[in-house]
Amino acid sequence: MKLRIGCSCLIYNKSLKLTKSTTAGEGLNGKILNLLTNDVGKFDIALAFIHDLWKGPMESLLLGYFIYIELGFAGLLGMAFLLSFIPLQAWIGKKTATYRMRAAKRTDLRVRFMNEIIQGIQVIKMYTWENSFAKMVEEVRRKEVNAIRGGAYVRATLISFFVVSRVSIFLSLLAYTYTGNVITARKVFIVTSYYSILNDSMVHFWPMAITFCSEAFISVLRIQEFLLTPEGKPKTPQGADEERNQEGKGSVLIDDEEKKKVQDNGLVPNGGVNEEEVEKLLPSKRVVNLDSDKKSIVMEDVTARWAVSEDESNVGVTSISTTVESGRLCVVIGAVGSGKTSLLQVILGELEVDEGTVQINGSISYAAQEPWLFESSVRNNILFIEEYDEERYLEVVRICALERDFQLFPHGDQTIVGERGISLSGGQKARVNLARAIYKKSDIYILDDPLSAVDTHVGKHIYEMCIKEFLGNKVCILVTHQLQYLNDVQHIILMEGGQIDAQGPYREIKKTMMDSIMALTPEESPDEDKFDFQKFTAHTEPTNLDQEKQVEEKESQGEGAVDMSVYKTYITAINSWIWILFISVFILLAQVAISSVDYFVAQWVNWEESLGHVNKSVVHLKENQTIEDLLDINVLHQLQAEANNEPERQQYIMIYAILIAIFIYLIVQRTFSFFYVCLRISMNLHDRMFRGLTRATMHFFNNNPSGRILNRFSKDIGAIDTSLPMSLHDCLVFFLEMISVVALVSIVNYWFLVPTVVVGAIMFLLRKAYLDTSRVVKRIESVNRSPIFSHLNASLQGLSTIRAFRAQGILCREFNSHMDVNTSAWFIYITTTRAFALWLDFVCVIYIAVVTLSFLVAGQNTLGGSVGLAITQTISLIGMCQWGMRQSAELENEMVSVERVNEYTTLPSEPPLETAPKYRPQGDWPEQGVVKFINVDLRYSEDGEKVLKDLNFSIRSNEKIGIVGRTGAGKSSLIQALFRLAPYEGTIEIDDIDTKTLGLRDLRSKISIIPQDPILFSGTLRSNLDPFEEKTDAELWSALDQVELKEAVSSLAGGLECKMSDGGSNFSMGQRQLVCLARAILRSNKILVLDEATANVDPETDKLIQTTIRTKFADCTVLTIAHRLHTVMDSDRVLVMDAGRVVEFGHPHDLLHGPSGYLRRLVDQTGVANAALLIRIADENYRKLKEREQDQQKTT
Fold it and tell me: What SS3 class is residue 970?
């Protein structure tokens, strides 16, 4: 257990050290998750079995000697047969390890896929891509099950070796009788009991020990490989030479007060930031000086590349020289993919410097471009690891424009932010993310595009109050696409293709570089990296304020015993009654065969003894007799008895041989079919769960962190795949053996039924007491495992932020406390198992004593064979009871996994995908693209507040509608209603057909959307554009051409087949948005929805997207949600929303020139020059519209 905790903490600490340059490529997240779920768990089992490795061989030597004493050389024949299987077993055990490795790799892949699907579920639903993903998962799952099947058959083979000891007894006795000896009860049953001990230690536990230890060894190798992943960049050939030329290592200074503070917080002992640590973490050529008097960032001739693999790297930034001083805001601008974020990553130390030096004088605070939120209250997200200082906190909330949002939240700033901030709108996430960076007291603030996700009014507020005033005297670097604010900025850096194109005051640059600012043409740098780890969560302690706490939804935890219905679900998942019948018959027949062999041997011995007591006196070896003497005497006796007994003895031997043959066949057949069926069941259960999950409502995904869902797909499915079949098999065999032992003992003497019943009752009570405890403990352990994954995931996602805030120490402590809670449950679970085993043994020993003594007391009239049979059968009970009872308890615990998986098959699902035949619309519906909202109310949960209130409006055919409003006004919720992602009241009609009558697939496939978060899935670019492979290459290239990605894509290795990394992070945010636009072009639907689709791109690309939409979608109805008012000013009409209601709807010209309304206010907030420009666009557009109408009237 200590090994397991140690490894888990090492893996976590390592994952915090991986810089951006390492995680850029390989889907490490799925791997880290799998290491923590499955691999570290192997240690517990392996160490339990490790002693059997030496114990087995020792016992076989000792017992071999004893058997030799009993039966002479004939006994050794059986021994030889038994031991000849050991090399085979060892080899098969080795095989297990290779299958395990193969299965582990495929499981990594499946977990990674599931992770992406859960992250992007909303997009998948909107695009109706469920089927294509189901196919992909099915494919991956099939490969995984094939690998697991190899392992299962290896186990089946090992279990079938159980026949070996029975065959050895058969061979020994056969050899013994054929060498002219007569068998007696004493010999037969002593030898039988020796063989059964051997069977346990060598045939049963020894191969298991080999298997588990080799699996653990593979896990150790996998963990070691991960821990040895280089933390820096893989050296590219050119990088390596430069390294040699510049040996000097950047010195790292930490000011004394800082050091003291760090120690007071107790960070240092916990792997926090002490000097050596920082020295190691920070690559050379980047110097951090915390106590410098003059706070600044100085970069001299800096070049840094993103390493893709050993021999290729992508441009990050090249030869950058600049100085950023405190009190002078520095703004970085440039086209999509020009290297703005890469520049910030260099300053943060996430991207290692290849040439040149970076000097950072002061401490850093950072707001990432993609908001990183963890699962906790809004306030904890803002405080993060800082102390709570009310005055500063309220000030930060005010300047980040969060006050109004806090009033709207049900619990103010104590509202729980779901995982990845799911319960907040895009703008709210961005502002909370910004507030966290501003709240931290630092000298240097690095803000990566915080203004793009917020509307103009909020953007202006943040820029004026927060960036210009609050951070006025600090070193501040801002990346932005909002050029309207920049008129007075004295230090602009214009990036292009990873280089500084120009820097200086905005006005000068505007004069000299007029064309490049106005035409920021997209240059390609495939790796302007966005850290887009799968979005995961962490937990932090809630801070106490007088606000009422919002209670977080806890993971459901089963109660009481596992219901019989769960067993029924498991068995019926075979989906075939014939198989169920077939397996049941085989299991019964196999047990009958085992018992009949034992019973038959006893009868044979009784027959031999009854032949006359003459032989009896002879067969015992006297001290001074040799085997030769014995043979002489035997010959005499045999001559006397030969005539009468020989044929009958031959008959006994024949029957014995036939029984053994039948027995071998039945056992092998039973074991293999059993494992085959179990895998079939686990495939069906996985498919059912996956179907249930993809059909679940969005409400489910918003309330369940992905760690919790993934836990079922990794840990629970893993248990059903591998450990459950073993336990179930052992249980079935154990219960049948128990019954057969009781039956055989009762045949010898029916009075034995009395103690048997008593002992049975005691065992049952013990088992009940144990199960009630262990089941609850095991469930507690399962539920406490989810936070570990959630925490890990959150950390993986916010690595850059965590490192910029130097929060590693605190997060490690938090991870350790999650581990401790989980481990304490696990430890109690292990100790209860041990206690249970001890008591069972105690009861068994008493039972054996009763049976044995009764023979001594009851007198001499029982035949030796029967006595031997009764005693050996009861002795075999000891090991069997312990193992069987433990396995039956284990089975109950593993059935919890089936229960949890089954829960997800019955999730409340969305309305049907297919339309009922009577409502099915015509083939080319919708022809017009007319959308009507009639009295629409929407709430996200049954008892939630209304998010949309009584919407009534209609959109005409081919109209271009802009939707604007403050962040959180309900703009995105409008789209949720249109796509029926959330249940709503009222009616939404498209071309006079009520969307509620349609199947979801028919509805969603007819509406194209470019979502707010452009999500790409790993796989190829082609599978991202056209997952059903319906389009030709030419169509795909033409779509890419229209969004100006053609040259970017053709420059990548593989073109359309180029690999996407996790979440598409090898494309910049803007490029991902363009890929989504290309998807929309390929779908060519009548209705197109843009949900802030241009928030992350520069104005030039924005213009490109708008033009594409004007031309490609001229005959479509287009709804655009936007924060940039430029985007919607030339719409036919603008819909203004506020707090879930429509407050204005009309042509922008009318709204701007009417009495001062909402839109007018939003426009005025962008500043005088901008407002004038916007009004001019609106008027121009209005004039064109009027001219068009006049032309139409003339023609008619």
Answer: coil
Identity at 456, one-letter amino acid code: T
Is the predicted pLDDT of residue 1130 greater than 90, yes or no? no
Q: For residue 787, what pLDDT is reported?
A: 84
Terminal alpha carbon distance of the chain: 85
Tell me whether domains 286-515 and 1009-1123 share a fold: yes
Neighbouring CB atoms inside 10 A of 915's CB total: 17
Average pLDDT over residues 840-857: 84
Q: Which CATH class is domain 286-515?
A: alpha beta
Element (H, E) at 477: strand 475-479
How many residues are there in the chain? 1196
Question: Lowest-confidence range among 16-20, 79-83, 961-965, 1145-1149?
Answer: 16-20
**Whole-angstrom distance, CA of residue 685 vs CA of residue 697:** 20
The H or E element containing residue 994 is: strand 993-994
SS3 content of the chain, % helix, strand, coil (to 5): 65, 10, 25
Sorted by sequence, the CB contacts under 8 Å of residue 742 that are 6+ apart come out as 753, 756, 760
Domain ranges of the chain: 1-230, 286-515, 568-604+645-748+892-909, 750-859, 1009-1123
Kind of pairing between the strands at 330-334 and 931-938:
unpaired
Give me the pLDDT at residue 524, please.
Answer: 29
In DSSP terms, 258 is beta-bridged to none
Q: 1-230: what fold?
A: ABC transporter transmembrane region fold (1.20.1560)
Whether 931 and 955 have beta carbons less than 8 Å apart is answered as yes
The CA distances from residue 81 to 69, 149, 169, in Å, are 18, 29, 10
Amino acid identity, position 531: F
- CA-to-CA distance for 1084 and 1093, rounded, in angstroms? 17
- Distance, in Å, from the CA atom of 490 to the CA atom of 469, rounded to the nearest integer, reads 15
- Whole-structure pTM value: 0.69
Domain 568-604+645-748+892-909 superfamily per CATH? ABC transporter type 1, transmembrane domain (1.20.1560.10)
Secondary structure letter of residue 400 according to DSSP: T
SS3 958: coil
> What is the three-state SS of 717-767?
HHHHHHHHHHHHHHHHHHHHHHHHHHHHHHHHCHHHHHHHHHHHHHHHHHH
pLDDT bin (cut points 50, 70, 90) of residue 589 is very high
Residue 265 tokens, joined: 């917080």
SS3 254: coil
Q: Give residues with Cβ within 8 angstroms of 419, minimum separation 6.
A: 374, 375, 535, 536, 537, 705, 706, 707, 790, 794
